[in-house]
TrEMBL record:
Residues 380-400 are annotated as: Disordered. Transmembrane segments: none annotated. Residues 24-87, 88-142, 143-206 form the SLH domain. PROSITE patterns: SLH. This is Uncharacterized protein YkwD.
């Protein structure tokens, strides 16, 4: 990857808009001498990085798009724009006005897209700009940061720490960084001026937050944030599927690392999250390395029960604790075979949870498919988190797993051996599924896929060994008891000859 040191930058001319005129900040009708960024705007205009409009305005509060940012970086860093080869973003055809510049910054690994899209018209966010500047100027973090909205699980934590360490960016006085806030022309002028000229950097170094509690954040996003913000940073989800609550799960992961399920309501608001990996942080310093004792010391006694409809369901005696915190139901799952460390977390908006007046999901075909996919994804995330690697879903065995779950639900039994005396390996062989080694996990009555997977993880009867075994393929089948809607789960894991 090419790096561009601050001292060696030769700033080239850039005309970002077609009709622009030169001048200093004092000549802009909308930038007075006492404007908070007047010096930086004047400097960046003199360097011909961003200039004003032909009507004599600078429009300091106008937002910068990702495509415009690519153009600014490509020309100010004097990248080889004309010789840049195509990266083949689906939304950046050759006729796009920023095609060459986007290819240049992508080749230099200063900016990148997601899911084969660059999103050139999308607004640039403060987190994205921090990442761009860190890469372009090869900045290094010399201190930790603890903004309320940027914890160590945030995708841009290291980038933000670097620009803050170099005094290019600072947080607000309230202890927040606002990573998803869109970048305006005035803010870009300030950030670029500080990156290019140390004289513009503030004298005071970052000193940390004011001691207020951090919010609950999942890959940097909180309940109440919008799907739009997530997609601008993380791109499109790997898969979406319905939840038992009525909202949609949006699943994100990088080959099952940094795994997260966001629950998204109909209006695009984040109302839930699930992750078994170290991509979240709660207030009080609780994170994925906390133990059950740590959690209970911080939050006190967990809920003993939860009411659904006319039934009160006990939560005691299980390998999990549930709390009502900040209008969220937060369930901590623990690994009983690893010092009771937090192994998974599920957070549901309290209004959503309270409105769901039943314990089990509706037994629809859509919900069966959703539960099947969630078990597969969460299992792979758990395996990956423990260095076991993910399994590939095998369509050939899906029918075998599904039929056994259906048979157990229909005939009201729970066993690896069906009523005809056939075990899992008999059923696999009968359906022509060749395997070298195999295992089967069963679960019944767990209200959600994460509960089923955590049940296997905490089992001392071989289920944990199967879940974390050296298998390459898997298949999951889910069925519901039509009478009481209780789910039955079958998971096959195996290697092929």
């Amino acid at each position: 990857m090419k790096r561009y040191g601050i001292a060696s930058i030769a700033v080239g001319a850039l005309v970002l808009f077609v009709c622009q005129e030169q001048g200093n900040a004092e000549t802009f009708q909308d930038v007075s001498a006492d404007h908070w960024a007047s010096s930086e705007i004047e400097y960046i205009q003199e360097q011909e990085i961003i200039t004003g409009y032909s009507d004599g305005t600078f429009r300091p509060e106008e937002f910068i798009s990702r495509g415009q940012a690519a153009t600014i970086l490509a020309r100010s860093l004097e990248l080889e724009v004309e010789t840049a080869s195509g990266i083949n973003y689906e939304d950046v055809p050759e006729k796009h006005p920023y095609f060459s510049e986007i290819n240049a910054v992508s080749e230099a690994e200063i900016m990148n897209g997601s899911m084969e899209e660059f999103r050139p018209e999308a607004p640039l966010t403060r987190a994205q700009l921090s990442a761009i500047l860190q890469r372009a100027f090869d900045l290094e973090a010399s201190q930790d940061i603890d903004f309320h909205d940027v914890n160590t699980s945030h995708w841009a934590y290291e980038h933000i720490a670097a620009v803050v360490s170099e005094r290019i960016a600072t947080g607000r006085d309230d202890g927040w960084y606002y990573p998803n806030e869109e970048v305006s022309r005035e803010y870009l002028a300030v950030f670029m001026s500080r990156a290019l000229n140390e004289d513009f950097r503030p004298d005071d170094a970052y000193e940390g937050d004011d001691g207020d509690e951090q919010p609950w954040a999942f890959r940097g996003f909180e309940l109440g944030d919008s799907l739009k913000d997530i997609e601008e940073d993380l791109g499109s989800p790997e898969e979406t599927m319905p939840s038992r609550y009525g909202f949609q799960w949006h699943i994100y992961h990088d080959n099952y690392e940094r795994y997260i399920q966001y629950g998204v309501s109909d209006d695009g608001t984040i109302v839930g999250a699930i992750t078994p990996q170290d991509v979240w942080q709660g207030n009080g310093g609780i994170d994925n390395h906390a133990t059950r004792s740590d959690v209970q010391e911080e939050y006190g006694e967990p809920l003993s029960s939860m009411s659904k409809g006319d039934v009160n369901y006990s939560l005691e005696g299980k390998q999990k604790d549930a709390y009502l915190i900040d209008n969220m139901y937060i369930t901590f799952y623990y690994d009983g075979q690893n010092h009771d460390e937090v192994s998974n977390i599920m957070v549901i908006d309290a209004d959503v949870e309270d409105a769901f007046d039943q314990y089990f999901a509706e037994p629809t075909s859509e919900m069966r498919a959703s539960y099947k996919s969630q078990v597969h994804h969460i299992s792979n995330a758990v395996r990956t988190d423990r260095g076991k690697g993910s399994t590939t879903p095998d369509d050939d065995a899906l029918g075998t797993a599904r039929k056994h779950s259906q048979d157990m639900a229909r005939s009201q039994y729970f066993d690896h051996v069906n009523l005809d005396g056939d075990g899992p390996f008999d059923r696999m062989e009968a359906e022509g599924i060749a395997f070298h080694s195999a295992a089967e996990n069963l679960a019944r009555g767990y209200p959600s896929p994460v509960d089923a997977v955590e049940g296997w993880l905490n089992s001392t009867n071989g289920h944990r060994e199967a879940l974390l075994g050296n298998y390459d393929y898997s298949a999951v089948g889910v069925a519901f008891d039509e009478r009481n809607h209780r789910p039955y789960y079958t998971q096959l894991l195996y290697t092929k000859p």
